[in-house]
Design brief:
Blueprint lengths: L15 H17 L3 E5 L5 H6 L9 E6 L3 H6 L5 H7 L4 H13 L5 E7 L14 E8 L5 E6 L4 H21 L1
Parallel strand pairs: 1-2, 1-3
Antiparallel strand pairs: 3-4, 4-5
Helix pairs in contact: 1-6
Length: about 180
């Protein structure tokens, strides 16, 4: 530990298994010759942070968008207000729109978007706390989508979402 840093030098933000998943996804993107980008609501930039925790990520990771306020979630990156009004800001439809919007607003070849309710509040009968929607888009390919209801506290839901999003992004890269 240095006087400037309250943490030991070997301290990492993410568990080793998650960093390995991120490294594999970045390697797959590099091999495919594409850059990556993210659109995050519930994880508030944690997917981007995890990917960029891997040395050399700047060769492949282009950018990340964090849309946290409900109005930003509902209309960010070109998602129609009508879609959010009809399905809700936390929905498969909005998440798909965010993933597609990332590709329109970047030079990335593949993107992942995530919305959800980490808790302790915010959920509803249709989408209880722990609900997470993930969409991975790749230029010229169909969008891949998944929905989860994770258990645990706020940070646990977020980290489970990060892992699921990086896995789905890797699946999209391999498609």
């Amino acid at each position: 530990m240095t006087p400037e840093s309250p943490l030991p030098e070997e301290q990492t933000l993410f568990p080793q298994a998650l960093l390995e998943l991120a490294a594999g996804t970045l390697a797959a993107a590099r091999e495919a010759g594409i850059r990556l980008a993210t659109a995050e609501t519930v994880t508030a930039g944690l997917i981007s942070a995890c990917l960029t925790s891997v040395a050399g990520a700047s060769e492949t990771f282009e950018r990340g968008f964090v849309l946290y306020h409900s109005s930003a979630k509902a209309t960010g990156l070109g998602v129609s207000e009508d879609v959010a009004a009809r399905y809700g800001a936390v929905s498969a439809e909005v998440t798909r729109g965010l993933a597609e919007g990332v590709l329109r607003h970047s030079q990335a070849g593949a993107a992942v978007a995530i919305t959800g309710y980490a808790g302790p509040g915010g959920g509803n009968e249709r989408n209880p706390v722990g609900t997470v929607y993930i969409a991975a888009a790749r230029r010229g390919m169909p969008v891949l989508e998944e929905q989860y209801v994770f258990s645990g506290g706020r940070d646990s839901v977020k980290l489970q979402g990060v892992a699921a999003a990086i896995k789905l992004l890797r699946k999209q890269i391999a498609a």
